């Protein structure tokens, strides 16, 4: 009989190596390689068929009824799932530890349970008493959610198979689930894959919706949820800054709906509350008189969202100037700085640059380029931008400005919130002219944008005077 072999698997990225190494060649993580027993190959023990059976090939057209949806009644959540959960689907909900995944799921399950659906919450992390305490705090103790604290995969599946199949099962978290048939430790890549696979199979065969919670890990001690993204039907990430109240649920994969849709929540004492007007909240505590801030009219999924981009440019005391970015892409900032330097003569090489997107939001659109550039120039020159102005558009490496999609939706949202001026690339003009309530400024290139920012010189004089007298 063949000797049971083992492999060495990186707990951060899932790469397999034949022997132990201190640093993973694939992702560069240190000390993330762990020895794992090899799972039995698929179909082992079954004699291979000599010939496969022929399967029916069908056309693309057919009459498949649209699946009914399970609506939670939490509008922000239902939008992200694409109009409710699909029976028999598997959904992964990832996020940093402590961001509020368990709270969100418990609130959603309680809503479903109150509508008469059979829902089960399996907690592998917290004891029953802890979950009950949370439910009490959220005012949900009366919701008929069936609760268990268990981590053994076989026991969980056996329990779920008893009686009528539940409509929804939440597994919190999938990284705590372990199967006795697999030799490696709970939280390892093999265990995570096997657990997720068995749960997905259960979902498909019984028509139960499985919600798997997964912690995003940075140190590689436990396997990350990215390893099972390909197995599930939808992947939602719950993001936010723990220092802020706002939480954003974002769909990054959805076989039954649009991706990039977001739901905005606010973490309050009594759990997560929906935020119906996120733009208003993200702009809530704006300091309009200070240079360095610009309002970006963005689009998240199908929804326009206005956010404030804050920058600070200060002379560097270090040999290499510092670039710190929160909520935006660091390499896009480097690109914007390079274009400002090469095409506009705004050289920030000797300055530390800090960039922050207010409210803990993470902006992914290149459309934020113009707002970032304007904020940088504003901070550098001490010229504050007009408070009632929004910006959007992409900067190309040649220093010209490029229009972006959905200009009208962005402007409508800005007008709704009382903004009067918009700075947009010239290409967007035909679309935005329809919106007559705002005055539109269309710089043709980045250098024109820089000049426009410099025309607001009010604070520059104040700053120069302060510097001279101190
Ligand atoms: P939790 O749902 O346990 O996070 P996760 O499952 O993602 O690890 O939420 C943890 C945080 O949320 C915790 O720091 C406390 C905070 N919280 C509130 O502020 N209000 C509440 O009503 C609840 C239940 C939690
Ligand atoms: Mg939790």
List the helices and strands and how they pair.
Blueprint: E1 6-10, E2 16-17, E3 33-37, H1 75-80, E4 90-95, H2 101-114, E5 119-123, H3 128-137, E6 146-149, H4 153-161, E7 168-172, H5 189-206, E8 209-215, E9 234-239, E10 246-254, E11 262-268, E12 271-274, H6 278-282, E13 293-300, E14 303-315, E15 323-326, H7 330-344, E16 351-357, H8 369-381, E17 389-391, E18 394-395, E19 401-402, H9 407-416, E20 421-423, H10 429-432, E21 439-441, H11 446-454, H12 458-469
Parallel strand pairs: 4-8, 4-9, 5-6, 5-7, 7-8, 13-17, 15-16, 17-20, 20-21
Antiparallel strand pairs: 1-2, 1-3, 9-10, 10-11, 11-12, 13-14, 14-16, 18-19
Helix pairs in contact: 8-11
Bound molecules: thymidine-5'-diphosphate and magnesium ion.
Comma- or semicolon-separated keywords:
470 residues, alpha/beta, Rossmann fold, Ribosomal Protein S5, domain 2, 3 domains, nine-stranded mixed β-sheet, binds thymidine-5'-diphosphate
Radius of gyration: 26 Å
| Count of DSSP H/I helices | 12
Shape: globular
Task: Tell me the number of strands.
Answer: 21
Q: What is the helical fraction, as a range of percent? A: 25-40%
* Poorly predicted tracts of residues: 41-46
Strand order of the largest sheet: 6-5-7-8-4-9-10-11-12
| CATH fold-level label of the largest domain | Rossmann fold
Average pLDDT confidence is 87
Tally of structural domains: 3
Query: Which ligands are bound?
Result: thymidine-5'-diphosphate, magnesium ion
What is the CATH H-level superfamily of the largest domain? P-loop containing nucleotide triphosphate hydrolases
Report, as a whole number of angstroms, the end-to-end distance.
Answer: 85 Å
């Amino acid at each position: 009989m063949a000797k049971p072999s083992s492999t060495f698997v990186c707990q951060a990225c899932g790469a397999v190596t034949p022997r132990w190494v201190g640093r993973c060649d694939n992702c560069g993580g240190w000390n993330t390689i762990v020895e794992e027993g090899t799972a039995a190959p698929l179909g082992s023990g079954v004699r291979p068929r000599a010939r496969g059976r022929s399967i029916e090939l069908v056309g693309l057209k057919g009459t498949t009824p649209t699946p009914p949806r399970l609506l939670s009644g939490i509008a922000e959540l239902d939008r992200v799932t694409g109009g409710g959960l699909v029976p028999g689907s598997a959904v992964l909900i990832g996020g940093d530890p402590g961001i509020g995944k368990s709270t969100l799921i418990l609130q959603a399950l309680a809503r479903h349970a109150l509508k008469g659906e059979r829902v089960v919450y399996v907690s592998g992390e917290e004891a029953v008493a802890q979950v009950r305490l949370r439910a009490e705090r959220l005012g949900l103790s009366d919701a008929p959610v069936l609760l268990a604290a268990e981590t053994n995969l076989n026991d969980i599946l056996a329990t779920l198979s008893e009686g009528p199949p539940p409509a929804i099962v939440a597994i919190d978290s999938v990284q705590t689930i372990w199967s006795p048939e697999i030799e490696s430790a709970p939280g390892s890549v093999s265990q995570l894959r096997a657990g997720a696979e068995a749960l997905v199979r259960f979902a498909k065969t019984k028509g139960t919706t499985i919600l798997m919670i997964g912690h995003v890990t940075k140190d590689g001690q436990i396997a990350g949820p990215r390893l099972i993204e390909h197995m599930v039907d939808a992947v939602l990430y719950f993001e936010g800054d723990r220092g802020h109240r706002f939480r954003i649920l974002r769909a990054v994969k959805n076989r039954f709906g649009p991706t990039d849709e977001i739901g905005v929540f606010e973490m309050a004492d009594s759990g997560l509350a929906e935020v119906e007007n996120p733009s208003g909240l993200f702009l809530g505590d704006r300091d309009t008189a200070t240079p360095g801030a610009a309002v970006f009219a963005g689009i998240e999924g199908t929804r326009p969202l206005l956010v404030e981009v804050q920058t600070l440019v200060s002379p560097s005391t270090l040999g290499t100037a510092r670039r710190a970015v929160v909520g935006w892409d660091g390499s896009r900032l480097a690109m914007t700085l390079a274009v400002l330097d090469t095409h506009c003569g705004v050289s920030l090489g000797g300055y530390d640059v800090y960039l922050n997107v207010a409210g803990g939001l993470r902006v992914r659109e290149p459309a934020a380029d113009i707002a970032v550039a304007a904020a940088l120039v504003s901070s550098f020159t001490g010229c504050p931008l007009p408070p009632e102005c929004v910006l959007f558009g992409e900067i190309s490496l040649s220093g010209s400005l490029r229009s972006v999609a959905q200009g009208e939706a962005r402007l409508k949202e800005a007008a709704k919130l009382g903004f009067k001026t918009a700075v947009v690339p010239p290409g967007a003009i035909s679309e935005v002219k329809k919106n007559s309530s705002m005055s539109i400024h269309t710089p043709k290139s980045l250098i024109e944008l820089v000049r426009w920012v410099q025309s607001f010189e009010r604070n520059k004089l104040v700053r120069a005077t302060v510097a001279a007298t101190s």
